[in-house]
UniProtKB/TrEMBL annotation:
Organism domain of life: Bacteria
Entries under SUPFAM superfamilies matching the protein: Arabinanase/levansucrase/invertase, Concanavalin A-like lectins/glucanases
Keyword Cytoplasm recorded: no
Family label: Belongs to the glycosyl hydrolase 43 family.
Keywords (A to Z) from UniProt: Carbohydrate metabolism, Glycosidase, Hydrolase, Polysaccharide degradation, Xylan degradation
CDD domains: GH43_Xsa43E-like (cd18618)
Protein name, per record: Family 43 glycosylhydrolase
InterPro entries with a match to the protein in the record: ConA-like_dom_sf, Glyco_hydro_43, Glyco_hydro_beta-prop_sf, Glycosyl_Hydrlase_43_Enz
A Pfam family of this chain: Glyco_hydro_43
Amino acid sequence: MKQIIAFLLVICSITVHAKDKNLVLRYTFYSSNADEIIKDDTGNGYNGELKNHAYIDQMGDFSILNLGYSNGYVDMGEKVGTLINSLKDFSISSYVCINAEANLNDNGHFIWSFSNSNDIMKDQNGCMFFSARTQGFSISKTDYRAESGISVNSPLQKKIWKHVVYTQTGNTAKIYVDGAVIADGEITINPKDLGKTLFNFIGRSPYGADAYFKGLISDFRIYKKALSENEIAPLHADLEVMNNAYADYLLKPVQHVTNGNPLFSHKHTADPAAFVYDDTFYIYAGQDVGDGSYYNMPNWVVFSSKDLETWEEHAVPLSVSDFSWAKGNTAWAAQVIERNGKFYWYISTEHASIHGKSIGVAVSDSPTGPFVDARGSALITNDMTTEYTGISWDDIDPTVWIDDDGQAYIFWGNTQCYYAKLKDNMIELDSEIMPVTLPNFTEAPWIHKRGDWYYLSYASLWPEKTCYAMSKDINGPWEYKGILNELAGNCNTNHQAIVEFKNNWYFVYHNGGLYNGGSYLRSVCIDYLFYNTDHTIKKIQMTSEGVSKVE
Ligand code: FUB
């Protein structure tokens, strides 16, 4: 009896896995990243190629395509054009998940496209595509002016796996999301009418100026028939399990390969604090969001790199809401420092009950968190410094230094620079608050040391340049040495960090250099810092290229 059951199970499994002759292309994304080839699992040879640092990743038990943040896409190759040209009835099916950061107001966000040019606006020679921005399919023998299509005209939901299928039989088209028809209608153009398409992409539009699809793709399939609702049902059976696995996947670091300055192009980042630990370069920054009309900064972010080319972005480790005494989207400048295996993140933010800005400190066992408020209250509040300035935002921009004898100091300020000693526990002041005299000090102090010289760099005047002073003693007096960095482009603030990493010195700062950027939508940059023989610092040369990969 057992043998009969086993035999039946084998027969069943053969039936289930029997080759579906209508399935003409399938990417399960089980190939490896190494050769950048995406295998067509039908055996028909429509292999694709990973482009612009798109990569294959593991999400729980699922192998997925991550298009990354550098305009990643898959080039399905010219051979697929022959397939497209042969299609009369067809279906294109895929799991997709749009990243939180995708700006779906921009044109583009095509899940797939097949076309005769990668500049359709100019060549006007035919394309078809599926847009996640409109949940719509379009096909044209020229360009957008002569399209036939169906759409619901609203974007697919972000941050959740969806299953999207487009089917066409003759002139009848349907779009299914998660197995349900969300749009249907008549299409007057057939893929055959496009000829053998030459540019066949997953995640990229044939319109050159369009935004690339930003997100994840799994189990991409093309059928040479219009699938029915019943046939589509098993294709989205993994949705629930995938979405469960996605919650953990979001905690995994995301890779970014930088293309010079600004360092990161997928989000706006400001007030960088650099930190070198265990052969790794960390950048802690505030995230600028919103419409660019004022500082709108709900959280801080952290990136790390071993070579300054490939950066990992870690799950958001700290938000203003992690400090019960703070309020608003005021994740202002901050710095992380290590002591005795613990990582202390000094931040500035708006106090909820004491008027003005305050400085707090969070702590973690790891440089990438999770971080928790170390005190449950602010370390420095505005009412502690009223004898120096009448402004409510002078208690911002902390920088912390542990001197060779183990004594820790915190410097901070706006308009007036202050400093104080910290106790060994790093979360309490150990002296009175003392003023530091610096010409034209605005904000953003940063302490570093080279040889027996201490350097105090800071943002000066308005709009801000970076200036610096030197001293042989952390307690000063500080000798002013002039401008270190001129105004950074398109931004009225500046905020620098200076660190040594693998035998070079680096100057990390922000400008308004990203598309859409400005004084409240800033972007972190990095350039080299060099010293003169008399230990003063050469003026920074801001570049678009940024710094080279460190081997
Ligand atoms: O990002 C908010 C504030 O702008 C910072 O705390 C200052 O340093 C300036 O960059």
